[in-house]
UniProtKB/TrEMBL annotation:
<feature type="signal peptide">
    <location>
        <begin position="1"/>
        <end position="17"/>
    </location>
</feature>
<dbReference type="InterPro" id="IPR010131">
    <property type="entry name" value="MdtP/NodT-like"/>
</dbReference>
<comment type="similarity">
    <text>Belongs to the outer membrane factor (OMF) (TC 1.B.17) family.</text>
</comment>
<dbReference type="GO" id="GO:0015562">
    <property type="term" value="F:efflux transmembrane transporter activity"/>
</dbReference>
<dbReference type="Pfam" id="PF02321">
    <property type="entry name" value="OEP"/>
</dbReference>
<dbReference type="InterPro" id="IPR003423">
    <property type="entry name" value="OMP_efflux"/>
</dbReference>
<keyword id="KW-0732">Signal</keyword>
<protein>
    <submittedName>
        <fullName>Transporter</fullName>
    </submittedName>
</protein>
Length: 404
């Protein structure tokens, strides 16, 4: 296991009033407060409630019937009373099919919520990495401005001593203006990156935060692509959700077929007739002669076919997504490793040497400018390489379906 070097990249000292945050703390905070999960949580809660409703042993309430009135006769009127209660029953597997459909739909909604959480975690890691990179870019712009101001000061001293021309002084002035412009740009990008991160975390935009982390990652060997694809297929939440949706669609199709079958109602009736008491058992059966649930059965067939095709498509995408993410991650690792400690140290040494040489009049302003920009571009390239490595790692975790 190797850790990429962090030469010239240091974590800033936290402000006393700022809230310190690490990358993993930010992920946890987003999973708790991000508004992006509100709809997913509501859908999961609704599906759970529907499952609990489908689990009821009896789906309909008892029905009470009552009739009272006089019986008119020549011999004399009498009061007749009839009272009955009945309950509809599901005896052809409707309840089981309904429960299976509701259970699978609940699992699908839960997996979709987990998939949203994985996507959110990846977005937070990328936003956190951008914010870190923007902070380092801002510090780099401040260093560049300091070097430009020092170069302008030396150029002025050389001009006053007759060792430099006005052209050299103008070059130093232009370079200072360029460095000022870059600092303004870096400041704006840092504010934008922090604002985007706070939005993902569901934080108050005015709350101050300090990022306690560094743009680095541990480089570890990855298994073969086939192993990663198999692992992703087994643990990715979108694949699990697609499987659950297919299972729910098949259960709904079974329910639609069974829903066309009769649902008998059994009951008990009590009556008073001519001063006699009558107690009877009752049964009512609806006859599916005209409406045999044709429309719902047809719609269920279409939903089942769509769910099956969606599952197949999702499973096909897994390999392509894992392959692309792995390739990007490996390329980012290779690019970041180019900036090893020796390269960065050489750039910094050249920067120090050329500055002293220019002060001593051993190099001209053009050589100073070239070497200085080369050193600063090297540091900037290192920041960009580590940001890309962080982004590639976040995307790799996302396609593998893992939060950590």
């Amino acid at each position: 296991m190797r850790v990429l070097p962090l030469l010239l990249l240091f974590v800033p000292t936290p402000a006393l009033s700022a809230r310190p945050l690490t990358m993993e703390q930010s992920v946890t905070l987003a999973l708790e407060h991000s508004p992006r999960l509100i709809e997913g949580r509501a859908e999961a809660a609704s599906a759970q409630a529907r499952w609990e409703g489908a689990d009821l042993p009896l789906q309909s309430n008892p029905q009470l019937q009552a009739a009272v009135g006089p019986r008119l006769r020549d011999e004399g009127d009498t009061l007749e009373l009839n009272v009955g209660i009945s309950q509809q029953l599901e005896i052809f597997g409707q309840r089981r099919a309904r429960k299976d459909a509701a259970r699978a739909a609940t699992e699908a909604s839960r997996f979709r919520l987990e998939s949203l959480q994985v996507e959110l975690a990846a977005d937070v890691r990328q936003a956190f990495g951008r914010a870190l990179a923007s902070e380092q870019a801002l510090r780099l712009s401040e260093d560049a401005l300091g070097l430009a101001e020092e170069g302008r000061k030396v150029a002025k001293e050389r001009l006053e001593a007759g060792a430099a021309s006005h052209i050299e002084m103008n070059i130093a002035t232009v370079e200072r203006g360029r460095a000022l412009q870059e600092k303004v740009r870096a400041t704006r990008l840092r504010h934008q990156a922090l604002a985007e991160l706070k939005l993902l975390l569901g934080m108050d935009p005015n709350e101050d935060i300090t990022l306690e982390h560094a743009l680095r990652t541990e480089v570890t060997p990855q298994p073969a692509l086939s192993v990663l694809v198999e692992r992703a297929s087994g643990q990715r939440q979108d694949v699990k959700a697609a499987r659950a949706e297919w299972e729910a669609a098949r259960a709904e199709l079974r329910f639609a077929s069974r829903d066309a079958l009769p649902r008998p109602s059994v009951g008990l009736a009590y009556g008073r007739e001519e001063n006699d008491t009558i107690i009877q058992g009752t049964i009512n059966i609806d006859l599916p002669v005209f409406n045999r649930n044709q429309a719902e059965r047809g719609a269920s067939v279409a939903r089942e076919r769509r769910a099956q095709q969606r599952l197949a498509a999702t499973e096909r995408f897994v390999r392509a997504e894992v392959e692309l993410a792995l390739s990007r991650y490996q390329s980012a690792q290779a690019a970041a490793e180019l900036f090893d400690a020796e390269v960065l140290a050489a750039l910094q040494e050249n920067l120090n040497l050329v500055t002293e040489a220019y002060r001593a009049g051993k190099v001209d302003s053009l050589q100073l400018l070239i070497i200085r920009r080369e050193a600063l571009d090297g540091r900037r390239g290192y920041i960009e390489a580590l940001e890309e490595l962080n982004t590639a790692h976040a995307q790799f975790l996302k396609v593998m379906g893992t939060l950590r």
